[in-house]
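Job type: complex structure
Entries:
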Amino acid sequence: QQPVQSPQAVILREGEDAVINCSSSKALYSVHWYRQKHGEAPVFLMILLKGGEQKGHEKISASFNEKKQQSSLYLTASQLSYSGTYFCGTERSNDYKLSFGAGTTVTVRA
Amino acid sequence: DAGITQSPRYKITETGRQVTLMCHQTWSHSYMFWYRQDLGHGLRLIYYSAAADITDKGEVPDGYVVSRSKTENFPLTLESATRSQTSVYFCASSVTGGGYEQYFGPGTRLTVT
């Protein structure tokens, strides 16, 4: 089952913050976050494992709420380089098959 | 450090033709994956492989065939291409399965006319 991402799109000015959510109706083993720039391949940002801690990558961090089966990606003090489409990928039961959300397009403007 | 490469990068083919997309990785990763990306659908898993000679279906396998005779190669074949298979195809690899990041190739943009 494809996870649900929200919002679909967000526009930020440099320095502003944003939160992207990823929800699943099924119990999850892990949540992956990737960023894709136009015409390029998705690039891995971070992974959150069931029972694991919040992760961080520069000023991008994420959390995983196991009770709600929801993960949130936090973009803090956004930079122009943060523009792109963010995808969450969810994995159930350590079966190494990822189901990706439809993506959230982030546009950061000067 | 080539990493993971795909060829061709762009391909135009006609309905009914067979076409093979190539994927090669230099990391000796055990797991390899094929995804297709369509607007509004994100990435959908077509097939994956846990090791040489071990493959299994993903979410959207119909119309596709894979093989993996060597660890480093994972070709994807469209046996009889249809317009609905027009998409961007990404190959990915992972050192192992279950909770490890996947590294994506640059993609192949396939158009079926």
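Summary: The radius of gyration of chain A is 13 Å. Chain A has a mean pLDDT of 90.
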